[in-house]
Amino acid sequence: MTGPLPSWSDGDARTSILDFVASVTTPERSTFVPPGERIATFDNDGTLWCEKPMYVQADFIFRKWKAMVAADPSLAAEQPFKALVEGDRAWLGAILDHVPELLKGLGVAFGGITADAFETEVRAFFTDARHPTLGTPYTSVGYRPMLELLAYLEANAFTVFICTGGGRDFVRVVGEEMYGIPRERVIGTGPTLEYRDGDLYRTTGVERPIDDGPGKPVHIWTRTGRKPLLAAGNSDGDIAMLETARFGLLVHHDDAVREFAYDGGAEQALAKATQRGWTVASMKDDFASIF
Amino acid sequence: MTGPLPSWSDGDARTSILDFVASVTTPERSTFVPPGERIATFDNDGTLWCEKPMYVQADFIFRKWKAMVAADPSLAAEQPFKALVEGDRAWLGAILDHVPELLKGLGVAFGGITADAFETEVRAFFTDARHPTLGTPYTSVGYRPMLELLAYLEANAFTVFICTGGGRDFVRVVGEEMYGIPRERVIGTGPTLEYRDGDLYRTTGVERPIDDGPGKPVHIWTRTGRKPLLAAGNSDGDIAMLETARFGLLVHHDDAVREFAYDGGAEQALAKATQRGWTVASMKDDFASIF
C-alpha cells in the first residue's frame, strides 16, 4: 500500500480505520473530536506483540524461577517451582487453577525489591532472551501494522495508551523503544507498592482490580479521566474496554503460517465484534507483513 | 520582575528554581536530564490553589449535603448532616475523628452515580460557587506565581502532573482551564469504580492508598513510572513526595494580609525543608502577587 498504514492490505479493516480517523479529525464533521479528547487504548499481549507460544512475561518469570532454583535447589519441592523444573506444562498452563501458588511464586521472586531493582531485571531479560520460535529479541516481536497504527494515531493528535492485563512495570521498560509510548502512558496490572526511606518497594500483593476484563475501563478512567475514543484488543479480556470505545478494533489471530492461529480465549470477543460492529483485523488477510 | 516567573520577587526561592531548571536543561552539564524524564508533581490544596478558610472540595460536599437535607429533612438527625445543619464547625473540622461518618456521607451523596454524572455536579459547583472571603469563582483562586511556574516548566519540556490528596475526579474538571493540565495528568484520591453495562459507576469505597503522605510517591510511580524530578507541596502530607524528588519546593503560608497565615499541618514539612535543603517559597516575601 501507499499512503498511511503501508503494512495493512487494502480491505475493510484498513478502510474503516482511515474512515474513522477522518471522521473525528475533520473539523467540519459533526463527529469531530478535539485533539485533547482523542484517547486511544491498546491491549498489549496478542494485540501489539506476539503472545505465543507463551506470554513474554511468562518467559521472564520462568527464567527468574529457574535461576532461583539453581541457587536454592530446595525450592524445587514446592509449586510453582516444581512444575517448572519438571516441565509440567499442563500445571503451568492452568493459570486459573493455580492463582495462589503462582502469586506466591511471584511474591517470592519480586516481593520486597525496589521498583528500580525490578526494572534492572526486566532490562536484562530483554537484552538476553530470544523468542522461542522466531529466534529474535522480544523487542522485535511487535506487529508492524499495529506499530504503524500507533504512529498514525499519534500523527492525528491521538494520545495513545497501552492498557495491558500483564505487568505495567514490565511493559514500561520497553514501551518507548518498541512503541514510542512513554512510561506514563503504560497502564497495566501492578503490585501493591510501599514507600519507605525515600524509595518504592514492591510487595507480594497485587493492586485491585487487575487491568483485565471489567478492570480495563476502570484503569483507563482512573489514569486518563476518559473513555477511549478508539480501543484495540484481541481477546475476551478486552471486551469491556472495547464496549466503552467509540471505535473498537479486534485483532484476529488466523495466520498459522506467519504467526499463530488461535481463537481460544477470544470466542466471546469475536461474537461481540459482529453484534457491535467492531472492526476485525484478520492477520492473514489484513496484515501485509507481520513483524 | 522581567524574564521568567514575573510574579515572583527577586530572591533565593526564584533564583534556586531558575538555577535548578538550568541545571537539568543544559546539555553540557553533568546534571542534564533528557526531556522525556523531566517529571514535575504538584500538590493542589494550598500549593496551587487556596485551601482556606476551607478546602474547595469541602464547600462542594457541604453544598451537596445541604441540598440533600433540603430534599429529605430526616437526614438531619444523623452525622455528618447534623453537624452541617447545626453549623457545628468543631465536628466538621475534626476530620480525623469522624472519618467513618464523613465517608458514609460521601457515599450517600455520590456512591452509585456514574463518573459522568459526578462530573456534571462538579461543573455546576464551579459555575455557581464563590470563594467565601475572596468573593471570586473558585477557578480564580489559583496562585499566579505557581501558575507561572507550571507554564515555565512545561516550556522547559517538563511533564507536569497534579498530585492531589483531594478528589482526582473533582480537580480534573477544572485542571485544564485553571492550570493547563489535561485530565490524564491529574493524579489524586479516587473512589473505587465499577464497570457495568458500558459505563463506570462510583462506589462508596475509596481506592487505597489515598494520595496523601506515603501514598503520594506510590500514586506517582503507578501513574508515571518515575519519581519526580521536581515536586512542590505545602504540608506534612507532601513530605514523602518531596523526599523522592531531586528538587523540593515548599510553599509557606505566611501572608495574613493577602492570603492566610498558618503553619498548622506543615510543622514537620518546614523542619524537613531545612534538613533537606528544600526551597521554601514565602508567600509574603517571594510572591510579588498572589492571585
Summarize the structure.
Chain A is α/β, with parallel strands linked by helices. Helix content of chain A is 41%, strand content 15%. Chain A is built from twelve helices and eight strands.
Write the layout of secondary structure elements.
Two copies of one chain form a homodimer.
Chain A lengths: L11 H14 L13 E4 L13 H16 L9 H5 L3 H5 L5 H12 L4 H14 L15 H12 L3 E9 H12 L6 E4 L1 E6 L2 E8 L8 H10 L5 E4 L5 H5 L3 E6 L14 H10 L2 E4 H4 L5
Parallel strand pairs in A: 1-2, 1-6, 2-3, 6-7, 7-8
Antiparallel strand pairs in A: 4-5
Task: Walk me through what this model shows.
2 copies of one chain form a homodimer. Chain A has 12 helices and 8 strands. By secondary structure, chain A is an alpha/beta fold. In chain A, the strands form 2 sheets. A 6-stranded parallel sheet of chain A has the order 3-2-1-6-7-8, sandwiched between helices. In chain A, helix 6 packs across helix 8. Chain A is globular. The mean pLDDT of chain A is 96. At the A-B interface, helix 8, strand 4 and helix 9 of A face helix 8, strand 4 and helix 9 of B.
Attribute tags:
homodimer, 291 residues, alpha/beta, six-stranded parallel beta sheet, two-stranded antiparallel sheet, 12 helices, 41% helix
Strand order of the largest sheet of chain A: 3-2-1-6-7-8
Total number of helical segments of chain A? Answer: 12
Structural class of chain A: alpha/beta
How much beta of chain A, percentage-wise?
15-25%
Largest sheet of chain A: 6 strands, parallel
The N- to C-terminal Cα distance of chain A equals 16 Å
Helix coverage percent of chain A? 40-55%
Cα radius of gyration of chain A in angstroms: 20 Å
Which stretches of chain A of 5+ consecutive residues score pLDDT under 50? none
Name the overall outline of chain A. globular
Element string of chain A (H = helix, E = strand): HEHHHHHHEHEEEHEHEHEH
The total strand number of chain A stands at 8
**Quick check: average pLDDT of chain A?**
96
Quaternary organisation: homodimer
Show the largest interface: A-B, 36 and 36 residues
